[in-house]
Amino acid sequence: MSALKQTPLYPLYSAVEGARCIDFGGWELPVQFSGIQAEHDAVRDRAGLFDVSHMGEVYVSGKDAEAYLQKLTVNDVTRLADGAAQYSLMCYPDGGTVDDLLVYKLNAEAFLLVLNASNLEKDIEWLTRHLEGDVTLNDQSDRTALLALQGPLAELILTKLAAEPDRVRALKPFTFLAETEVAGVKLLLSRTGYTGEDGFELYVPAEQAGALWTRLLEVGEPEGLVPVGLGARDTLRFEAGLALYGQELSATISPLEAGLARWVKLDKGDFIGREALLRQKEQGVPRKLVGIEMIDRGIPRSHYPLYAIGEPIGEVTTGTRSPSLKRDLGLALVKAEYAELGTEIEIEIRGKRLKAVVIAAPFYKRIRKEKAK
């Protein structure tokens, strides 16, 4: 058995009493530090700090970089200004999803792609296979650590250490500073995240990540900042209705089926998967991602089968008891004819079919709290 990969911050996990790691796609990562509920609440109410250094960072450069990405991704790269980022996806010709990703525009001939760790090898092979023109790929994943500071007090905490606090405050969602300093560390700083809250992601040289992690926790302690693991990361993104590759997205699930049509720009010109996605739009997607809530007592879990009128209609993609809402909720991929709000369905849990109902998602939307003075 091969050894699990570890992030540059792994040696610091043991400093937190209660830290527990798991195998996450070949990485030894913390599932929790102080407990999933406590960490989830901290991000919703105050702030949390995540080590997501397992994510992949690939730079795309050259005079044909924009045209290349325009063909490889479903969103419209040409709409990006320097210093802006966009959520996007790469598709197979049949419309299935290769991966979802973030695209950062550094300048007219340089972009940064942030890819899912579990798909990194596959993604790089896909990107390499479709190289055209003057384009160079530079995988910097092993040299880059990624810290995510998330929550309503994230800005307050970050500006305590930022060399350019006014520029940090001025950042709008999905914009970034290509080079700035936090606690003396030069890094790329973006106003992005995966929690449904305000927050920032800090792309840091791997060898400097530990010092920055420690310093952020020190200055954030008075504001209630805590380290957060994968467990709360999953419940936070789930409540906010954010897709997870391997659950809401896969090679057999298209972006349109996953409810991500707003990021699919069918009018931008040709791209890989466009014809299949256009057919889905014109004919109607056969399946839709919906929210569900239990009527009977039970918790929907990933891959639990769903039924209506005794017939199979789909399965749960993600489900849990919502830490914020205290309700048993799920995301599910169902036949389109059963996706209407209020439709009653059944979920098979431990051999029993229990009642549930289709509801609106996302389940949680951020309340903009007044910034601390």
At the first level of CATH, what is the class of the domain at 286-359? Mainly Beta
Helical residue percent band = 10-25%
CATH architecture of the domain at 286-359: Beta Barrel
- Listing every helix as H and every strand as E from the N terminus to the C terminus, the arrangement reads HEEHEEHEEEHEEHHEEEHEHHEEEEEE
Mean pLDDT: 96
Strand content: 25-35%
User: Describe the biggest sheet?
Assistant: 6 strands, mixed
Q: pLDDT under 50 segments (min length 5)? A: 369-373
- Tell me the number of helical segments per DSSP (H or I, 4 or more residues long): 9
Spatial sequence of strands, sheet with the most strands: 10-11-12-9-3-13
CATH level 3 topology of the domain at 286-359: Elongation Factor Tu (Ef-tu), domain 3
Broad shape = globular
Q: Let me know the CATH homologous superfamily of the domain at 286-359.
A: Aminomethyltransferase beta-barrel domains
Backbone CA Rg: 21 Å
Number of DSSP E strands: 19
Structural class by SSE content: alpha+beta
Can you describe what's shown?
This protein has a domain at 286-359: Elongation Factor Tu (Ef-tu), domain 3, CATH 2.40.30.110. 21% of the residues lie in helices and 34% in strands. The protein has nine helices and 19 strands. The strands form four sheets. Strands 10-11-12-9-3-13 form a six-stranded mixed beta sheet, sandwiched between helices.
Write the layout of secondary structure elements.
Elements: H1 10-13, E1 20-24, E2 27-32, H2 36-45, E3 48-51, E4 56-61, H3 65-72, E5 84-91, E6 97-107, E7 110-115, H4 120-129, E8 136-139, E9 144-150, H5 154-161, H6 165-170, E10 176-182, E11 185-190, E12 199-205, H7 209-220, E13 226-228, H8 230-239, H9 274-283, E14 287-294, E15 305-308, E16 311-321, E17 328-335, E18 344-349, E19 352-359
Parallel strand pairs: 3-13
Antiparallel strand pairs: 1-2, 3-9, 4-7, 4-8, 5-6, 6-7, 9-12, 10-11, 11-12, 14-17, 14-19, 15-16, 15-18, 16-17, 18-19
